[in-house]
Amino acid sequence: MKLASQIELDALQGMEPAFWPSPRKPSFIQSLSAIADKYDIFLIDQWGVLHNGIAPYSGVIDALENLQRLGKAVGVLSNSGLRSNDNITRLHHLGIPRALYSSIVTSGEVAWQLFKDADGVFSEFSGKRCFLISSDRSAHFLEGLDIAQAHDLDDADFILLSGLNPDISESTIDMLIETGVSNGLPLICANPDHMRITNHGLKPSAGMVALRYEAAGGAVIQIGKPFKEIYRYAIQSLSRSPKDRVLAIGDSLHHDVAGGNAAGCDTLLIEQGILSHELAEFKTAQDKENAVMRLAECESQIPNWIATTLSW
């Protein structure tokens, strides 16, 4: 699928998503069944909503099965820097069958397609050498692209950051930023997430490195949520009618709610996942609801709906 030309313009200008304060007050719901009839398309985040990297969360399979039963279009929308097929394999291994979702779109897939199409600003990377940093420590992402892998920053024309492997050191990241900026290398970030869920709690993710790189004076293009192009791509892959009603579901105010708002979707914030670490100190449901509202107001991103988990 060829991406719309507006995607290139958004990336070229390093456009921030259209953040705006919303006057609406969200409604807290017990389950997805309470609002399922209001929407035709469901764009569902992966980590922190469907699974924790080890297994699906309780209630997720039942929710997906019921959406399929109702004939809803379900798209997994993820800031994974890996391509879509890699994530299909991961979901299968975690126990989430391919039959339970209509499509999967990842920031890595969108980035790969932009490089493959080589339109506009992305034509500048064809035939060039990239210093690749990925979560799986492999050059698998570059397969099928007219881009060579550079094994040293001094030999690279740009940096491609598709993820962080679990044991990358802070000194390595510092060196990457210092040398990359000094050498004038643009950085393409295919995973804008600021934090990631690990077996050892929340850890900084690739998007945080991109922010540091930009703050140090480097040129950065980010691809994925909350930027609009990934929503256009996902909706285009699923939409059956211009009147389709879309609900974006995720656990991040900054990425899922902000991105959904900017794309014109309704949004459902899940308290599980990233937010669970911030809500752990609150014991009652009311205290948690109040805390979520304060966080949403601080981010100036108010979802339409809030639920504890993705369940039916």
Automatic annotation (TrEMBL):
Keywords: Hydrolase. GO terms for molecular function: phosphatase activity. Transmembrane segments: none annotated. InterPro entries: HAD-like_sf, HAD-SF_hydro_IIA, HAD-SF_hydro_IIA_hyp3, HAD_sf. This is HAD family hydrolase. The lineage of its organism: Bacteria, Pseudomonadati, Pseudomonadota, Betaproteobacteria, Nitrosomonadales. The keyword Transferase does not apply. SUPFAM superfamilies: HAD-like (SSF56784). Coiled coil: none annotated. NCBIfam families: HAD-SF-IIA, HAD-SF-IIA-hyp4. It comes from Novimethylophilus kurashikiensis. It comes from the Bacteria. GO terms for cellular component: cytoplasm. Pfam families: Hydrolase_6, Hydrolase_like.
